[in-house]
Amino acid sequence: MNHGKTRIILLFLALPLTLYAVLVVSPYAQAFQISLTSWSGFTAGKPFVGFDNFQRLFQDPDFWQALAHNGLLLLVVPLVTIVLGLFFAAMLNVGGSGGKVAGVRGSAFYRRVYFLPHILPVVITAVLWQFIYNPQIGLLNGGLEAIGLGGLAHSWLGDPTVALWALIGVLVWAGVGFYVVLFSAAMQSIPKDIFEAAELDGAGRFQTLTRITLPLLRETVQVAWIYLGIHALDAFALFMVLAPSGGPDNSTMVLSQYLYLSAFQKGHFGYATAIGVLLSLLSLLMTALTFGTSRKKTTIEF
Amino acid sequence: MTTPPTPPTPLRHTHHTRRTRPTAHLATGVTHALLAVWALLSTVPLLWALISAFKDNRELFGNPWRLPSAWHADNFTRAWSKASIGDYFVNTLVVVFGALALTMILGSMVAYVLARFTFPGSRLIYYTFVAGMAFPVVLALVPLFFIVKSLGLLGSYQGLILVYTAYALPFTVFFLTSFFRTLPTAVAEAALIDGASQEAIFFRVMLPMAKPGLLSVGIFNFLGMWNQYLLPVALNTDRDKYVLSQGLASLSSQQGYEADWSALFAGLVIAAVPVIALYLMLQRRIQAGLTVGMLK
Questions:
Q1: What is the CATH classification number for the domain harbouring B223?
Q2: Does residue B37 form part of some domain?
Q3: pLDDT of B114-141, one tens digit each?
Q4: Could you tell me the residue range of the domain that residue B265 belongs to?
Q5: How many CB pairs lie under 8 A apart between chains A and B?
Q6: Which end of chain B, N or C, is surrounded by fewer C-beta atoms within 10 Å?
Q7: Could you give the 3-state DSSP secondary structure of residue A191?
């Protein structure tokens, strides 16, 4: 089977590996090195300053504020999205009236509709919500007035106390449909006889959900958590469009945005890259933690 | 995708319904109400944007829940030509399809070689690609900017195509490697004995067999590339070369000065249509393609 093997390996790997090495591996490697310099981008040299950038970061209130915002996103977005996703998936798949195994009528339609916000490119979602939150022409204030709640009307993105929550709302809105579909697929892969056995044993609808369906979905939920967490650590496009300079009083500044603005507006390339290094460590740490805790428990095979 | 309801046995049925019917009906009603609420939340903003795209500026500032008195299709022509959405659209098509083609061909070549042959360094190469999925792209942004600059490719189609491809490779290679491993090799071996070259076997035998996998990862990559904002915003600084996401974002930030809101709504619709159309056509496949990466 080795006839022509060496040639095809060299032929097929040469171009993609060069591309990958130059445009992906090398920038990542350089990033770690640049984070130890005070490079401002347009000077020839990259003065080595050791861990100075990191020391300055830890004393920078803007950094801590951005980190806190990411922390909030990391907690709230996955939690709300997963709870809603599980809730709707459970409704669609085991909420029907024809027994605990059946889905509700029209569940395929619901899944299709729920997925729509997820399919939209992020920038379109962002511009769309910019309109919805707009105090003059916005759908939200108009809607609140229409149902007599005009007193709740807000300049949603202009008020530092609500701006971050407004952005969280958009992240959840765009995310839920994807997780409904994901959890639905996972629920449908659970063998039907497990549900039938539970029904025979007299388990109610709620019991079946909490004792059988949810425990069997634990691994999928974990993967979803990582995925949403990494998303929440990034969230660049949405924040850049809806709150270009970090929102009112920096109230929506997140790390990826702080990195971008430090680098491409202020020219602090070394400093910006140090933010990137910390951000990467955070997302790696989160992945490791989630996988670490999952390994300990036994998984059920079927 | 709906699960057919399994009819319970008659005996259990009578026993069961007597006890649970009223609450079960209520529960079903509540279920439907909640499901409908989220369905409205998912669609109303989109419909509102679509309808608003036909209003003139004066009506836009009126009641957002009212239909336009006259449907202004000219918003779309103005968005397409005057607001340059047409140019951005063409730029996006060139970059996305260029990068998609390159990603699919390079990605499947790497994946095939890694799946079929073991050679010194093969595992290292595989894990280098896998590791590429673990780091946030924003970390690479600053050095990447200067690399692309030194190659003279800032603000060019070629630059964006190469960068999009490079960052799409990790997942593509990861996904297709496991896909190629599942394909039977009997036909390939027979062809080899008949004197076909390894390259011919790849293009004529294995690639056609891998079509379902290529399609899934192709859809995934297409949506990701159409979606891309971070890379172009850093690397594509030339206004004439803007892709849709950049163009829309910059238009929306300029509206405060130029105040042509209706053209912006129309631009939004133009940018969303290809993705939504693709979704409606390939709904099942797209859902599978996007979730498959996570269930593996």
A1: 1.10.3720.10
A2: no
A3: 999 999 999 999 999 988 888 888 889 9
A4: 84-295
A5: 303
A6: C
A7: coil
